Structure formats: structure tokens, C-alpha cells
Amino acid sequence: MPLNFASSPIIGMIHIGPLPGTPWYGAKGDYAAVRAKAIADALALAEGGAQAGLVQNRDDRVFSNGSADPVVAAAFADITRAVVDAAGDRLEIGVQVLRNDLRASLAIAHICGGSFVRCGVLLGSTETVSGRVDGDPYAILNYRRQIGAEHVKLLVSRIIRHG
Q1: How far apart are CA 16 and CA 97, in angstroms?
Q2: Domain extents for the chain?
Q3: Are 38 and 16 in contact (CB under 8 A)?
Q4: Staple 68 to which of 24, 72, 96, 134, CB 3.0 to 4.6 Å?
Q5: How does pLDDT run across 63-88, given as a tens digit for each residue?
Q6: Are 80 and 54 spatial neighbours (Cβ–Cβ below 8 Å)?
Q7: What is the DSSP letter of 27?
Q8: pLDDT at site 162
Q9: CA angle in degrees (0–180, nearest 5) for 139-143-145
Q10: Phi, psi for residue 40 in degrees, rounded to 5
Q11: Which residues of the chain have pLDDT under 70?
């Protein structure tokens, strides 16, 4: 079920709890509980008529302003794959790692069956509570091509939220 932007699709959030390696890991249960909640949220979105769900580690609260730690990326990939498998063809699944780790987001979406990535900053730059975030469209488009992920759509924020 590809996203049809002419019809204003509903994209719901799948906010995953704090992940291993982050300051609040364990605050919302162990890893199995965090993973199970993400799957349940995705199924609820599909049941409620959403066209897509965005897997995002919102509950980590304080984001690294750069690349995800390898254990965060591994957990994120595992949860994304589980969500994709559970949702099947009922829900398009997108990925947003940290505030703007577009390389990790693209890799996870590509390998785990996601169909889009939310780009917090692709063009220009913005100041956030985590510091300055700069977009680099050339690097991201080149990386997407290098890993064979041209099918993964880039959803770009026009207005930065949660800055």
C-alpha cells in the first residue's frame, strides 16, 4: 500500500521507549516490553485506518546530535523489522533515528523493509536543544544510492518541530 500524498495520508507515530545505551533505558520496562509496545502501537495504527507508521525513538528524550550508538542502531533495526513483519501490507513503515541520523535511518529502512525515512533536517540547518543540526542533501542522496535504497522515500520536514 504505497503512500499517496494526493490523498493526505495519516502517518501515525510508533514512539519506542528508551533503548539500551541511553540514559533512561529501563524506565519503560525491559527491552522485550519496549519492543512489544512498538508492535502493539503499529497494529493499533493499522486497525485505526492509518496508512503509515513512523518508528521513532522519542522516549530517549536527550538525543545525541550525530550518529546513533551501535547498540541503539541494532535495537532500532530489530524493532523496525518486528514492526514491519507484524504490520504486513496493512501499514507503510518509516524510520527516524535520533533527531536526524539519516544514514542509520536509511540503512534500517532499507534492510528491515521500511518504505520511508523522516528527515528532520535535509536542507539548511537548525538549532535544537541538542545543538546545531546541518543538512547535507548531497551526502544523503549519494549514500541512499550507494546502499541501493533508492526505493526508500525521503519525507522532509518543512518546519522543524521539537527543536
Answers
A1: 11
A2: 5-156
A3: yes
A4: 72
A5: 666 788 899 999 999 999 999 999 99
A6: no
A7: B
A8: 54
A9: 120
A10: -60, -40
A11: 1-6, 59-65, 122, 124-125, 129, 135, 158-163
Residue with cell 493526505: 8
Is the pTM here over 0.85, yes or no? yes
**95 DSSP assignment:** E
pLDDT at site 29: 76
Cα→Cα distances 92→43, 57, 80, 122, 159, Å: 12, 18, 11, 21, 23
Q: Residue 138 belongs to what H/E stretch?
A: helix 137-146
Choose among 143, 137, 65, 156: nearest CA to 106.
143
Q: Please, which residues bridge with residue 134 across strands?
A: 125
